[in-house]
Task: structure prediction
Amino acid sequence: MNVEHPSISIVRFSKPIVRTLALSILLLSGCARPTVEGQSSAAQTQDGIPVDVAIARLAQLESPRSYTGTTRPRREIALRSQIEAQLLNLSVDVGDRVRQGQILAQLDTALLRAEVIQAQAELAARRSEVVQAETQVNRSRTAVEQSRLALQQAQSDAQRLEQLLKEGATSQQLTEQAQTAAQTAQQVLQSTQAEVSTAQQAVQAAQKRVKAQAALVAQAQERLSYAIVTSPITGVVLQRVTEPGNLLRPGEEILQLGDLSQIKVVVTVSELELRNLRPGQAAQVRLDALGQTSFAGTISRISPAADPTARLVPIEIILNNPDARIGSGLLARVEFATAERPRVVIPQSALESEKPTPDQQNTLFIVTGQGDQARVQARSVQLGDRRNGQVEVLSGLRAGEQFVVRSGRPLKDGARVRFSILSEGV
Result:
C-alpha cells in the first residue's frame, strides 16, 4: 500500500530551489556584517582611539655601573711605643673620640728619670773639664808673657855685653854667656807658646764632650717624654691593641686611630674603563648600612699600576664626613658620573617603524590637548643610539612632551585619541 506522509512531502525540494535559498542566506549575512563594523568604527572614531601615553624625559641609555668597596678613614694612625716601659694607664677605648694633643696613655718613667739625672750629672762633669782647660790656657798665656819679658831682658844684656866687648870693657866669656842666656829665653818662649796651643786644643775637646753629653741629656729627656702618649690627630679610636700592665718594647702597637672627617673608598675597575675616569671626577656612594642615602664623592687618586693578573686598577674616592655619620669598614657601592650629556630617551616600540632608516629619521606621534580634545600629531624625529629596547631622540621631541607608546589601532596625523589607564599623567 502506497501511503504518503505529510511531513515528508514538506522537505522534498528540488535542487534549484535549495541553491537559491542558500545564496539568499549568504547575501543576507554579507549585507548585515558591514553594517555592524561600520557602527563600531564610527563609535571608536567618536570616542577616540585608545592609546598608551608617556612623558618624554632626559636619561641615558646605559645605567652607571656600580662598584663595591669598603669605607676607611682617609688618615689612619698606629700609635706605637717608642721606649721599653710598662704601660700604666690607657684612658680611651674603641669608638672614643679624641682630640689632637690629648693624653691617651701613660708609661712608667722611673728608669727614664734615672737616666736623665745620670746624663745631667755627666754633663756637669764635662762642663767642669772645660773650665779647667780654660784655666790652663790662661796659665800658659801668663807663662808666655813672662818668657817674652825674660827674652827681651836676655837679648838686651847680650847686646850690651857685645858693645862692652868691642870697647874692651868686658870679657869674651861673659859676652858668650849672655848670648846663651838669650837663646835659652827664646826657647822657653817657644815652649810656653806651644803650651798655650795645647791648652786651647784641650778646651775645644772638652767643649765637644760637653756638646755630646748635652745631646745625651736631650735624648734622655726626649725618651722621658715618650712615656706620655698623645693623639697626633683629631679622630676616633679604631682599635685598642694592648692593656695596662703589659711591658711594651719599642715599636709595639698601643692604639689605632682614624680621622673620620673624610672617608676613602677604594674600588677596582677594568683597565678598559680608565679612559672615562679622571681625578676630581664626581662619584655617588651608597652604603648598605645607611639605606638608600647617597653621598657625593670625588676621585682623589688613580693608581698608576694595574694588577698584572686581573688587569684591574685601584681607584680611590674621597667623601666628606663632617658629622662622622659614616663609619669604617662599611660596604660601599660606587657609581661614577659620566661626561655624557643626558638626552630624551623613549621606548623603541613608540616609533612608527622600529627599523632604523639610513639617516636615522622616523615618525613619532605626539599627543596634543587633553581629555576629549586629545589628538595626535605625526612628527619626524632624528634618532641616536639604541640599546635594550630604548632609543635616543636627538631632535624632534623635547623633554616634558607627551607621545604615544602604543595604540589599539593604526594612527594618522590629527586622529582623536583617548588615554588608557596605563598612560602617564592620567
The helical segments are 6-10, 15-47, 110-167, 172-225. The first strand starts at residue 49 and ends at 55.
